[in-house]
Amino acid sequence: GGVVTLDPGYKNTGACESAITFLDGEKGVLRYRGYAIEELAEKAHFLEVCYLLIFGELPTEVQLNKFHEDIKAQSHVDEDVKRILDGFPKAAHPMGVLSSLTSALVAFNPSSVNVDSEEDMYKAIVKILGKFPVLTAWTYRKRMGLPLDYGGDTLGYVDNFLKMMFKKPSGDYTTNEIVLKALDKLLILHADHEQNCSTSTVRIVGSSHAGLFVSISAGIAALWGPLHGGANQAVIEMLEEIKADGGDTKKFMAKAKDKNDPFRLMGFGHRVYKNFDPRAKIIKKAADDVLENLGIQDDILDIAKALEKEALEDPYFVERKLYPNVDFYSGIIYRALGIPVEMFTPMFALGRLPGWIAQWREMRLNKEPIGRPRQIYIGEKLREFKTVEKR
Ligand code: CMC
């Protein structure tokens, strides 16, 4: 019963009340639990931000250490997971592999599904925070034909991840502070973004009381698409294409504006930011800093800047309030850090993990009802069935 309001893409429909992330799309404001994204990106560490998003407050030193120890105690995956990973072709897209492995984790950790108490939730949360970086690094190493193993118990969360990714088969690994800081910042900037496509997916899957891991697995699948997290890969592929084509940005601008051409300027536009994306501002500067500090000259950055400048002056983009989003410059940094393009969206997933967890936990603690949108039926009226020989 009741009147159903139609709102494709939920452009104006609120699905929940949330105390996690504040976003003002007109003013370009983003805050996690009341803290400005600019300040967090500058001063906080990723693991502190994870804690903040999930539990609502910045941790004390004691709380942070305990959280980290609890995660470290769960930072291993069953050796049999290597056999599953082995079954995937090397060329498989890492997002598909990661989504599958994340759901497979349930089979190895069946108790993670029963989360009726906050204590059980906590156990599932530290497990996924511990194991997901391992799955991400292993997915990368398998692709590269490198041995699958672990980082080090004495390292920080992000440093440990970098070591798992880049350690040589000999075990050698040296921390590069610039790389570490840049990745930490990127992960913070990606950590939550209220009710976006993947987060809404996590909440809706979790609302059926399926466990945390499968809800995250579904979130990874949603993030994969080029209109969402997959845009960071698509941006670099687009910039490469422009470069290979001779660097004529105007030609690609024209394609983006042509309504008969499906091409869109990847990394541009946003459902809620209609002024600027505050994350893009921080990332653009970080891209400049990282390239300069690492002494890298990348033509692609110049193409990106030219494209941005043209778009910001172009009536088509101005009228539609299309600005560079978080994905426009992030890939340039990932590239400079030595991360291959297919791993860009997995990096986004690693960053978004605490946001997905926080939103899932909030949804369960608020005892939200199962997510179940309505529809307006526009199909056939009642018809009479004819057996196959009479059709
Ligand atoms: N290039 C060219 N035209 C665009 C673009 C673009 N990137 N984005 C939007 N438009 C046009 C669109 O064609 C439409 O024009 P018209 O009014 O003439 O029909 C108008 O702008 C409004 O676009 P929309 O598709 O109705 O807006 P939406 O809120 O449904 O979509 C979006 C938002 C992000 C999916 C879209 O802007 C897009 O496809 N951008 C490119 C992909 C991208 O960068 N995605 C990353 C999003 S940010 C982080 C994340 O989620 O990962």
TrEMBL record:
UniProt keywords, alphabetically: Acyltransferase, Transferase, Tricarboxylic acid cycle
Residues the record marks as active site: H270, D327
CDD domains: EcCS_like
GO MF annotation: an example: citrate synthase activity
PROSITE patterns: CITRATE_SYNTHASE
Catalytic activity: oxaloacetate + acetyl-CoA + H2O = citrate + CoA + H(+)
GO cellular component: cytoplasm
Annotated GO biological process: tricarboxylic acid cycle
Keyword Transferase included in the entry's annotation: yes
Pathway assignment: Carbohydrate metabolism; tricarboxylic acid cycle; isocitrate from oxaloacetate: step 1/2
SUPFAM superfamilies: Citrate synthase
Alphabetized InterPro entries for the sequence: Citrate_synth-like_lrg_a-sub, Citrate_synth-like_sm_a-sub, Citrate_synthase, Citrate_synthase_AS, Citrate_synthase_bac-typ, Citrate_synthase_sf, Citrate_synthase_typ-I
Protein family according to the UniProt entry: Belongs to the citrate synthase family.
Protein name, as recorded: Citrate synthase
Organism the protein comes from: Aequorivita xiaoshiensis
Lineage, highest ranks first: Bacteria, Pseudomonadati, Bacteroidota, Flavobacteriia, Flavobacteriales
